Amino acid sequence: KAGVTQTPRYLIKTRGQQVTLSCSPISGHRSVSWYQQTPGQGLQFLFEYFSETQRNKGNFPGRFSGRQFSNSRSEMNVSTLELGDSALYLCASSLPPSRGELFFGEGSRLTVL
Amino acid sequence: AQSVSQHNHHVILSEAASLELGCNYSYGGTVNLFWYVQYPGQHLQLLLKYFSGDPLVKGIKGFEAEFIKSKFSFNLRKPSVQWSDTAEYFCAVKPSGTASKLTFGTGTRLQVTL
Question: How confident is the model at residue A1 (pLDDT cuts 50, 70, 90)?
Answer without folding.
Answer: low
